[in-house]
Give the backbone structure.
Amino acid sequence: MHKPIYIVDGARTPFLKAKSAPGPFTAADLATAAGSALLMRQPFAPEQLDELILGCASPSADEVNIGRVVALRLGCGNQVPGWTVMRNCASGMQAIDSAIANLQCGRSQLVLAGGVDALSHAPLLFSEKMVRWLAGWYAARSTGDRLAMLRTFRLGHLAPVIGIMKGLTDPIVGQLMGQTAENLAWKFGITREDMDAFAVESHRRVCAGQDAGHYADEIVPLIDRDGQVYAADDGVRRDSSMANLAKLKPFFDKTYGRVTPGNSSQITDGAAWLVLASEEAVERHGLQPLARIVDSQWAGLAPDQMGLGPVHATMPILQRHGLAPNDLDAWELNEAFAAQVIACLRAFEDDDYCRTHFGVDAPGAPEASRLNVDGGAVALGHPVGASGARIVLHLLEVLRRKGGGRGLATICIGGGQGGAMLVETV
Amino acid sequence: MSANMQQDWKHWRLRREDTGLAWLDLDKADASANVLSAEVLAEFAGVLDTLDAAPPKALVIASAKPAGFIAGADIEEFSRLDSVLAARMLVERGWLLFNRLAAVSYPTLALIRGHCMGGGLELALACRHRIVVDEPGTKLALPEVMLGIVPGWGGMLRLPALIGPAAALDLMLTGKSVDAKKAKRLGLADDCVPARVMESAARIVALGGKPVRQLPAKERATRWAMNGPLRRMVADKARAQAARKVSRANYPAPFAIVDIWEKYGGNALDVPAGDPSSLDSIFTSPTARNLVRVFHLQERLKAFGKDSDFAPRHVHVVGAGVMGGDIAAVCALRGMTVTLQDQSVERIAPAIARAAKLFERRHKGDAKQVRFTLDRLIPDPKGEGAARADLIIEAIFENLDVKRSLFAELEARAKPDAVLATNTSSLRLEDIATALKDPARLVGIHFFNPVPMLPLVEVVQGEATDAEVLRRATGFVRRIDKLPLPVQSAPGFLVNAVLGPYMLEALRCVEEGIAPETVDAVLVEFGMPMGPVELVDTVGLDIAVAAGKALAGEGAEPPARLLKLVGEGKLGRKSGEGYYRWRDGKAVKAGDEDERKGGLWRRRKPAPQPTIPAGLAERVLAPLLAATRRCVEQGVVGDADLADAGVIFGTGFAPHTGGPLHYCKTKG
């Protein structure tokens, strides 16, 4: 990157686990609440942003360009453009990367970028059959036509398609995301116990992080219209244990599989934002940057191996900067599935894998003490579009505690991709 | 469009289209809003003459003012009426003219955008069609009753005929307005359209392209019955409804409206002199004069913010209690961005819930507007907003040291030109101000509970308060559509200084053994919106004790029963019991239906009417009147009229009296 890109500040909502019904906030509500609190503490006005970029994997049908909706709801005024980016699980990281691109080429100086999803609001869809039947029904003009249509109706037409299951199924290989995690478990010989132990540790780390206040600064508490307060991530389980997790059944490959809801990330609602600025904006508004984004990388790989995306996105960055994994002070590797994170660590240590894919010997995996030190999405949840921004935001908190340094945030992407960002505190 | 024929009118503009449609715009000369003055009406008669000579295919009446359609009759003219004969002539002028308009041979249509009040609506009602423009500013009302008079230019005739007597009487007896959508729903308007097609809609409807909407058969039958055989029943129901709110002795107009509709075909001129519903009775009663006085007092308060263009975009409120939370909500409703600070998000949450309910009521279920308004109300537990705000209002608990350190901190963080205001009611402004590097920055902006309902806000000038700061604070109060009353820093300012002794006297009566119900009943009968004992319960007994000490000094001994109740934790409404027991937010009073539900024997034997000590109302009011006078003498308020305005809009003091000092004067 030839111009420095600064992260000035950031904030997110608590991540709220999807219960059986739609959650208390829509995606735009979440992004607005976190964004207004974040903008309120800046020395510039919302109207002074050059643009707002929001990553969202499943905006609701009435807010498809949710970025613009949120820009207006944040009081950025009519003149600040707002747009939406979509790269599945990395939509939030894509928003940051799109901001970087526009800052690099000088189109923007000051950008609010982030991600959001409210998966609990994912729609139920009519089946293809029902849609065709309805089309025929609306076209029928005469009573006779209508009667004829009625005779073709079958109750089975009413069975809804669960939107989120569609979204979490790879359209090329036809596998659920959890099934791609099963592929990796099989490939690297990862056991159910490995995964459950990883999950227990993730919950333990999040609890410890919450108790130590490591999440307090990044979270904007929410209040719903009934006055209920949502102050913390609510998916984490303090009673998580091997015994509890052992009770859960494999969900994706029923009966015979290893991946359960307990060792997968949760379905969650949440939003996360970063304020990104050029050198010029930092000077103009007297901003005090937290960190600099040094590099970013996208990579592609086989869709049924998507969980290894972080390895593929990270390797070029490490190579470009001549870094080994443990040269970095902290890693945030998004926990879509315990199996997928463990697979990444094994791949980093696997000479065969690294030679085949990157033409180099295995660089070794980051130590456990540098990786997801405050836990991750298995315990916090994975509001798809928000996670890519959340891990960058939380990486800054971890680096701050370490007294500064370099860190890497990386995420796997449904469809067979990976994204990574290298940041350095200033 | 063809050339205009005759254009020697000052206020009206007539243009004719080639289609044969005529457009008549009202543009009252030298005024920002249209009112139906004698001259405007006389010219209108001339316009009708012109049109008679060459009838158009249809006529559309509209306003050339951006402010609205027609604001009503000319209140100045009305205020100057000096005889019953003059009043009769004024009523007759509009009644006959609008009857003439209603009878013209060509179709007529009123195109209503913005306010359409009183005589303006009566003019519109005399047209064959009405189109309303779907904008927030479009409001239709017959508010004559608020001035103690009746809609005598055909409102009482045409509104019940058009929308049915039940809805019509409700509008005329309360004076409340309906918006564009509701106007269509009621059948008051033929259609409700966006501004972009209003001319086209007016043209199509006026030229007969669209049939008048037919009501469903059931609704037609109901209206026919209510205007016919059930007329008496409907009238009695309306009278009972009015009697629940006001007495006929104090407020003759609502009862007259019902009578005139029921017995005189809506024609006020037909009521024989001497009848309590006659124009003579209405115009000679002091109520109408006093209510017009109150209207003028209100206009005077409204004018206070005019010399400031201060329009804060961001208001920071510290303290998310009922008062602070409601102040924040009211500001957000007026389009301001508001940060609401308190010690924790949990303390802010109840204020957000209450605001959400308020927004839903005010935006009448417009989910988008509710959401935008909530978006503007930002919980701010860390107080980040203080650095960005144009105005900071402190509404925390009454503790001098805490307020002083808060303001010292706020001053350091606030923008240099931000206005710093305290909502304190019992602390001296000067004692707080000295905590600031620049004490001139502090002003008092004193709201009253419940903030969304009460129109008055006292703007308090401390010894050091800078004049420009005062102007800005006053301007802000107008921006949130409240009535600013400038007061000097003195214990209780105006409103609490007059309420305190009044409530205290009421409690002394209770101390002497008079039932709280009796005390409250005589003052409600006098015209107060709520009895003084119930008011103490509503304010909170602990607050009453504290305020009493602040007003009367530490030495003053509060009534023993008050102290005893506070000692028992019975703090009034908020704790469920005080002088009254409270159920579902209502005081349970002896003799209430609620009380009598106990058993059959109770219902058969109505509670014995307590004997009311002679002069009870006067006794309880006397300290209030004296305190008001004292406030004027001591210069707490500018003059007697402002004192009356403050006491009426701050306490709800019986408006039909024209205010406490005016009441004293008329009582002699």
Notes: The first helix of chain B runs from residue 38 to 53. The two ends of chain B are 64 Å apart (CA to CA). Chain B has three domains: 12-284, 314-489, 496-579+610-635. Chain B is about 50% helix and 15% strand.
